[in-house]
Amino acid sequence: MSLALLADAALVLLVLGLAFWINAASRAFPAVVGYVAFGLLLALAWLRLSAGDVAMTEAAVGSGVTGAVLIAASVRLRSAETEAPPPALPLRLLALLLSGLVTAALAGLVLWTTGPAPSLADQAVQHLPGLGMGNAVTGVLIAYRALDTLLEKVVLLLALMGIWSLAKDRYWGGIPGPSRIQPTNGALILLARLLPPIGIVVAVYILWVGATDPGGAFQGGAILAAMWLLVMLAGLRDAPAISRPWVRLCVTVGPAAFIAVGLTGFALPNGFLSYPDSIAKPLIIAVESVLTLSIAVILGLLVAGPPERQP
Amino acid sequence: MIAPAALLVLAIILPAAGVVLALAAGGRGAERVAMAVIAGGAAIALAIAGTLWSTGAPLSYIIGGWAPPLGIALRADGLSAFMLLTSALVIGAIGLFARATYVQPAGTPERRAPLVFWIMLMGVWTGLNAVWLAGDLFSLYVALELLTFSAVPLVSLEGKPETLAAALRYMLFALIGSILYLLGCALLYGGYGTLDIVLLSRLARPEPVVFVALALMTAGLAAKTALFPLHLWLPPAHAGAPAAASALLSALVVKGSFILMVRLWFDSLPGIAGDGAAQFMAALGSAAIIVGSVLALRQERLKLMIAYSTVAQIGYLFFLFPLAGAAGDWERLAWTGGIMQLVAHAVAKAAMFMAAGLIGEALGHDRIAGFAGLGRALPVVMFAFGLAGMSLMGLPPSGGFVAKAMLLTASIGEGQWWWAVVIMIGGLLAAGYMFRVLTPALAGGAAPVILAARISRPRQAIVLGLAICALLLGLMPLRPSALLEVGRTTQAAEVR
Predict the structure, then answer these.
(1) Of A161, A259, A263, the CB nearest to B23
(2) Whole-number Å distance between alpha carbons of B225 and B219
(3) Residue ranges of the domains in chain A?
(4) pLDDT tens digits along A16-40
(5) Which of A33, A112, B74, B183 is deepest in the core (most CB within 10 A)?
């Protein structure tokens, strides 16, 4: 019984306990806070499984961005919630039972299969030098399965349009959020002044290091988005009107660059979405940099919500 | 000169680039981009289908030179060609029809609905073409996400509270469907180390992990296809959306998840699900036909009636599973019949929803009780509505007749006569709900109908043109289609 095993066991118990607690919470807000903490613990669990990229994404997107959306939603729903009674205990127990059953069934399936699962990890690593990469996950995302990544960026754009489409016609082109946040919270303002310079450096580092270690465009973009949201929440800057040309440019430039680079692949022997050997790495880094910008702006605007006032 | 296989990439990337460009351009640019994409997309679909027709061989394209299982391949077989053509035709008609509604007048600030509509139209098309062409189960998941995220905003495009509720319910069903599908993908990858359809079909064996994966994925896709009893989200969503969007959702979007189910059962995991499972799927389809038709008969609003009719017509598609499972002659007939039902319903239902949209605009309401004498006031629209209705009822000569006749013949030929009974009852019920609309409209009322708005000739012509296409599909010979068999026989031989 080593110390690491003890720590892992504690982590598992914490994750499970928090999961029960989220199910048992009768109000949305505490459940959401629990969910954010749950995401962070889950990220730790992924780290223990040596899945650094998954851990980062879980922390940044699963816990961070999703958590921000859920918190904003639960704050807005508070007034409606006090009128309606909380979900009845049998319903909550049923939800708990269902999630428990799914977990148990999946665990059973994983334990049922014997021997190591077949994996493409070796192949994925083997071709990395040709791309100038060292991180297999980045290789999968930007080379081997680049088409999926490209289409997921289009999904992000569609999601943003979907949220904007909820705006009232008279506010189209306006500013997200019901009203401008006044800079009154001193602690938040201090944080919003101190953290962004550090956050931007970390985001650029994460993007750069993604070539060889866990990291990459999505994680970097999520950190940038978090910095931007912090500034908006502190009231230092208002959200931009969605009709601004720079907003439209920022959200589309990443996917557009990715498509353009993909199409130039037709001139190469390996065709669409292949990269020329000699400049594979700089080209990939360039595409990822523009993508990081687009992802950051899209994620920030996703959290900011549909336009609710005139520009 | 573009190599034929490269067209598979362009079929997906052209509408995807359209989404990006339309958002960057904004305002009037969005419609222009959409029109260019519609023209280009139709040319690409024709070129791919033409190549398959002339060579008789499937096409494939390996993305970035990374061969599966590490990379992903796009593949076009006869089924892909049929679906590419159908979606190009229907989306083209919807696009032209919607130009009158989603206008961005010159020199005015950008409007919400036009921008959202044109972007989502191209988003749906990207997702559909990706479903028809992707050769990998995870790429197909991305395609499903494209479909969901572009279809849901279309439901609530008018922004009314009841359509927002319908859109939210649709999104919950669709997301649960996506999660179940993704879970199945994870299980299959864990079991075999690949998600490529061809490689998986060679590796998969009947064992617990495959059964669980197939069951989860089928359940998820059934929710997205609105198979009874998971159809509850469809009627409010499809009836509440604006006419052009309803046409798109009912004609094509629900077919995307159905084709994915076909790829799963027939191509990725052939022979894994036993006959019992196939019979169960068709039984659910039968229940959809009966329940959907009876509920359609009882609706007071035209758009809700058409939406329930979609629930019923989707049911016929599930006869594919017990009837087209093997490689014999009857099975080949059932294969063509099932896919023809899909194509015929797509074309007829798009025409019908657009006709209903014009009726609603002209009358200012869509209550069936107020339709007396409508045939004289809107002759072209009612004629188009009737032609589309013929296809739904399965009357000759129409695409629906050809499809249902082939399914009927195949089910008797294979000794599964009980499905033939359901097909006939379904036809009678469809006739019931169609004539409930047509009889008062054609008989004429005491007083002449007063129209609230005039409908322009070109829009009537587009609807009539699409309804005539539904009729012309009836010229198809009643035998297995050679184009639809491209890439199928070899695969069946490979596996069996």
Answers:
(1) A161
(2) 10
(3) 1-86, 120-311
(4) 889 888 877 777 888 888 898 999 9
(5) B74
